[in-house]
């Protein structure tokens, strides 16, 4: 084990130490003894951006296969053992990474480490056709449930395909296409594991009521003998010009309950000050019920039932600002679009008021407190900054960076990026009664609390 | 490459866990303010985001005839202006605190949920108190909320899971009962709502004497008594009487209703009936049995439907309390939900019924029950890590007329429950011949295979 451990003071009284095993596995530990729980989070530096043409969805399908057993864990044993120990777990796949996490009662931490090590080292001894065929069907049903069988369900996929050009690593979303899910073979899955699942392509974080010395000893014991390798292929280059250059547009005529105006704006890469400024800009314009677009479209014009902006932060390609407006009654899209353009232009010219800055930053600060308020959230953020930016400590100071952004930087972000010539527009027009006829991230287990909500 | 792969790593035996560190569901302090408001407080070290829940005794069955959705509009109108702030100003002030305020009307009453960093608790409590004490209910804002609500309804109709929930309530409960109808009203009832109706409903049902506030978070160094006295303590109202709770009855004659969705690629399933609420002695056993049936992807339903057959991304069984009374005469909806691809609808339902019948015939194993106890009890410290989670459960207990230590006792009772009791509870909760099945899907493709299963008469509705 290397001697790279350093403890640094960080914001909010939270600290993290960093370590590296001889096989290249990076480890981040953070103690917090308030509750007897411990979160284990493992990020592999592989996501849908690493997929090749004809094999979209493979990273996510593979994530499912990671729960189908390994050398010492039979079948669904990973789920059974964690849940039987009073823990909760899941895995998720996004454009840029795949993460696996177990939140355990503190006295069961060692079990979670053993389980993660077993599949990191030995997955291929258990992976077979039966689990491949079964999980292929499960994932196809996940795709139907979350995207294909709900109104506007494929909007994000369509926007992504517009905003990132054909051939770009972010052109397709992690769920992949049905055709590619059908085409994936067991050998593709094996090859994927051999290429990307290695200790030197991962970061492990453990956060909570832990003894750091004991935890490191367990990590060394269980992960230390897994050989590292350099088989990984880097993702295709995701860089693009700062702006799209001219507006892209797609009109979808589908059986949806109302007209909708959506758009994707190309924004600065995550990890930059400009991305934080864009985050504040989107919050002022479209975050919450005191935002400019909500006030204009929902309160004053009454042209929309909902209106807001979301930010998808990306490190390996331009981030994406997602506008989502659902029309009210019979209001037509041009009326909404004109109002949106007016608000964006006015904001780009005048910038936010001091009070708007205060509100947006207070909202973003609370979101960060929420993220860092649970051991699982903290473990995930430490991995994120370690994998994407090489420094987990940045997670603990991220909120400070958002609060440091100035009104002029926010105005500048809007002026440079929130322009009609830097967006892909997606318009939904519902089919009329006569026409109607037969017609960002994705995870392993359904996460919602079961309930019958109307 | 060879199919026999030898791991390159050193294998170690599965570790045994250490000794559990003690944890108990937190006990709140209960006080009453001078205005009659009941307050539950719970200090949770380290939880910088404080959660405040306020329960109002304004159940949906007290909405006037033909005005379903009135409680929902009132709940939403609380954050649309007060005697101090316009609607826009109120939203702005709240967000300036970094706070969120949600309000929702359900069968037992209206619930407001505030979350705010503890550093700005005072300001946010002041806004919450303004909303309850002196809501503006301006005509223009109410009219906008009504329009907005009307716009939402088609979106809910289009969503298969929500459409299924609405149909199941309509099927299960007598037509005249409030529980049979959508919580947030229909187009016909919502469009009749105006500011005068909202004001009258507020005056009739909203008062501190019949309300409860729950405050949870890191309250070290916060003089909560003084903050409450200066905010929610200033809310005035008369004594008021608690609203009576009508009994819940249901028709669970086994039958199938298909809500037709031509061309749907999946069928949404919602299979349910009504059972006891948390006051019933069977509750701990029913929680364990229901988890073993469909609580997770290693439970009986998903072991077959997902992990063996691949018909679904996941099917869950659960109980959702509808109404409770101090006397213990309340009811919960018991249900199984999920979605399966259209082609597999018949085979999936066939397997689902086989799972139920096998469970009734053979019962749960001791190992299954042990897993359920270990998970449900063991997971508590994680489940209740945040202030919001603790506040929500404490508020549920108040709303359901349960003692403040109910959750803590429930965990103890679960550890004392055996497989025989859990089997009896889940089998009586989900009897194979007394379940109402709602399917939202393509009737032309699923009706025949479903009829062939013999799980009840099949009818088709549209819309």
From TrEMBL, chain A:
Stretches assigned to the Peptidase M16 C-terminal domain: 184-364
Gene Ontology terms, MF aspect: metal ion binding; metallopeptidase activity
Protein name stated in the entry: Insulinase family protein
Region named Disordered: 430-454
Entry-linked InterPro entries: Metalloenz_LuxS/M16, Pept_M16_N, Peptidase_M16, Peptidase_M16_C
Keywords for this protein: Hydrolase, Metalloprotease, Protease, Zinc
Family indicated by similarity: Belongs to the peptidase M16 family.
PANTHER family associated with the record: NARDILYSIN (PTHR43690), PROTEIN YHJJ (PTHR43690:SF17)
Pfam family, one: Peptidase_M16_C
A GO BP annotation: proteolysis
Residue stretches making up the Peptidase M16 N-terminal domain: 26-165
Organism: Streptomyces albidoflavus
Domain of life where this protein originates: Bacteria
Automatic annotation (TrEMBL), chain B:
InterPro entries for the chain: Metalloenz_LuxS/M16, MPP/UQCRC_Complex, Pept_M16_N, Peptidase_M16_C
Residue ranges occupied by any Peptidase M16 N-terminal domain in the UniProt entry: 39-173
Highest taxon above the source species: Bacteria
Domain Peptidase M16 C-terminal positions: 193-376
MF GO annotations: metal ion binding
One Pfam short name: Peptidase_M16
The protein's name in its UniProt record: Insulinase family protein
Species in which this protein is naturally found: Streptomyces albidoflavus
């Amino acid at each position: 084990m290397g001697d790279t451990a350093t403890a640094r003071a960080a914001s909010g009284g939270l600290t993290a130490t960093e370590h590296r095993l001889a096989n290249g596995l990076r480890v981040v530990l953070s103690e917090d003894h308030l509750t007897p729980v411990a979160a284990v989070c493992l990020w592999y530096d592989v996501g849908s951006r690493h997929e090749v043409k004809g094999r979209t969805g493979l990273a996510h399908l593979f994530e499912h296969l990671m729960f189908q057993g390994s050398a010492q864990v039979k079948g669904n044993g990973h789920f059974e053992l964690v849940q039987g120990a009073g823990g909760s777990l899941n895995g998720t796949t996004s454009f840029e990474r795949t993460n696996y996490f177990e939140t355990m009662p503190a006295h069961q931490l060692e079990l979670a480490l053993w389980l993660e090590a077993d599949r990191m080292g030995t997955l291929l001894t258990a992976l077979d056709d039966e689990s491949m065929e079964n999980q292929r069907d499960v994932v196809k049903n996940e795709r139907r449930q979350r995207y294909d069988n709900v109104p506007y369900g494929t909007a994000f996929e369509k926007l992504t395909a517009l905003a990132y050009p054909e051939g770009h690593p972010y052109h397709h979303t992690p769920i992949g296409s049905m055709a590619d899910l059908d085409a994936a073979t067991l050998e593709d899955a094996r090859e994927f594991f051999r290429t990307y699942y290695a200790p030197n392509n991962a970061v492990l974080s453990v956060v909570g009521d832990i003894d750091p010395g004991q935890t490191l000893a367990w990590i060394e014991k269980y992960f230390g003998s897994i050989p590292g390798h350099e088989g990984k292929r880097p993702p295709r280059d995701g860089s693009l010009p700062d702006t799209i250059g001219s507006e892209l547009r797609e009109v979808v005529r589908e059986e949806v309950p109302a007209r909708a105006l959506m758009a994707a704006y190309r924004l600065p890469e995550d990890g930059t000050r400009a991305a934080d400024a864009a985050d504040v800009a989107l919050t002022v314009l479209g975050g919450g019920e005191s935002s400019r677009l909500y006030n204009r479209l929902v309160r004053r014009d009454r042209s929309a039932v909902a209106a807001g902006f979301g930010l998808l932060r990306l490190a390996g390609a331009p981030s994406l600002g997602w506008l989502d407006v659902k029309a009210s009654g019979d209001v037509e899209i041009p009326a909404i679009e004109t109002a949106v353009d007016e608000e964006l232009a006015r904001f780009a010219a005048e910038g936010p008021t001091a009070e708007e800055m205060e509100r947006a930053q207070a909202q973003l600060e609370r979101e960060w407190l929420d993220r860092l308020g649970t051991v699982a959230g903290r473990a995930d953020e430490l991995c994120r900054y370690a994998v994407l930016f090489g420094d987990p400590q940045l997670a603990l100071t991220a909120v400070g960076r958002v609060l440091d952004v100035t009104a002029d930087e926010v105005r500048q972000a809007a002026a440079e990026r929130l322009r009609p010539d830097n967006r892909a527009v997606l318009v939904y027009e519902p089919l009329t009664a006569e026409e109607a006829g037969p017609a960002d991230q994705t995870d392993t287990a359904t996460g919602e609390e079961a309930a019958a909500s109307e | 490459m060879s199919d026999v792969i030898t791991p390159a790593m050193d294998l170690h035996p599965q570790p045994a866990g250490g000794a559990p560190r003690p944890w108990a569901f937190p006990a709140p302090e209960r006080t009453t303010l001078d205005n009659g408001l009941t307050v539950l407080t719970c200090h949770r070290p380290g939880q910088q985001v404080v959660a405040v829940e306020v329960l109002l005794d304004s159940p949906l069955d007290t909405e006037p005839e033909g005005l379903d959705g009135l409680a929902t509009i009132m709940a939403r109108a609380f954050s649309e202006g007060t005697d101090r702030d316009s609607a826009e100003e109120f939203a702005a002030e709240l967000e300036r605190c970094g706070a969120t305020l949600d309000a929702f009307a359900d069968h037992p009453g209206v619930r407001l949920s505030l979350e705010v960093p503890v550093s700005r608790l005072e300001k946010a409590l002041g806004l919450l108190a303004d909303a309850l004490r002196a809501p503006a209910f301006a005509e223009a804002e109410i009219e906008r909320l009504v329009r907005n609500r009307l716009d939402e309804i088609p979106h809910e109709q289009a969503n298969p899971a929500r459409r299924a929930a609405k149909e199941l309530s309509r099927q299960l409960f007598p037509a005249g009962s409030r529980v049979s109808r959508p919580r947030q009203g229909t187009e016909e009832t919502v469009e009749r709502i105006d500011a005068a109706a909202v004001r009258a409903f507020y005056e009739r049902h909203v008062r501190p004497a019949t309300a409860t506030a729950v405050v949870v978070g890191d309250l070290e160094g916060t003089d909560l008594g003084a903050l409450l006295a200066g905010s929610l303590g200033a809310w005035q109202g008369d004594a008021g009487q608690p609203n009576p709770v009508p009994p819940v009855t249901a028709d669970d004659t086994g039958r199938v209703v298909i809500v037709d969705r031509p061309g749907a690629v999946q069928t949404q399933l919602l299979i349910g009936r009504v059972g006891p609420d948390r006051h019933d002695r069977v509750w701990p056993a029913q929680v364990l049995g229901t988890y073993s049936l469909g609580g997770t992807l290693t439970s009986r339903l998903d072991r077959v439907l997902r992990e063996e057959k691949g018909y679904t991304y996941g099917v869950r069984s659960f109980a959702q309390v509808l109404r409770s009374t101090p006397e213990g005469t309340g009811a919960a909806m018991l249900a199984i939900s999920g979605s399966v691809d259209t082609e597999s609808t018949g085979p999936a339902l066939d397997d689902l019924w086989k799972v139920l019948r096998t469970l009734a015939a053979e019962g749960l194993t001791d190992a299954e029950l042990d897993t359920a106890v270990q998970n449900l009890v063991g997971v508590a410290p994680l489940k209740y890590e945040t202030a919001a989670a603790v506040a929500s459960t404490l508020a549920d207990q108040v709303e359901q007329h349960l003692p403040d230590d109910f959750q803590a006792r429930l965990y103890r009772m679960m550890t004392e429950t055996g497989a025989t009791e859990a089997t009896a509870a889940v089998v009586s909760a989900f009897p194979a011949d007394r379940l109402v099945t709602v399917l939202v899907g393509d009737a032309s493709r699923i009706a025949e295979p479903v009829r062939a299963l013999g799980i009840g008469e099949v009818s088709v509705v549209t819309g």
